[in-house]
Amino acid sequence: MNKKIDVAGIMGPVWIIGWLFTIGFVKLAFFKGLIALLLWPYYLGEALAYVPVQ
Predict the structure, then answer these.
(1) If exposure means fewest CB atoms within 10 Å of the residue's CB, which of 2, 8, 13, 45 is most exposed?
(2) Residue 35 to residues 16, 24, 31, 45: CA-CA distances in angstroms?
(3) Domain ranges in the chain?
(4) Which residues neighbour 33 within 8 Å (Cβ) at sequence distance 6 or greater?
């Protein structure tokens, strides 16, 4: 009776809801919000993916 919880299936919609809430909270205009949805995740991923080589 092992039950496996699929966390990725839960966290995806939660992340999107949080992202849309943040855009609404800072009161971005439509086009600025669209740019934020399209470009900011790319730049965030690039910044977090960098691992310095020692």
Answers:
(1) 2
(2) 15, 13, 6, 16
(3) 7-49
(4) 23
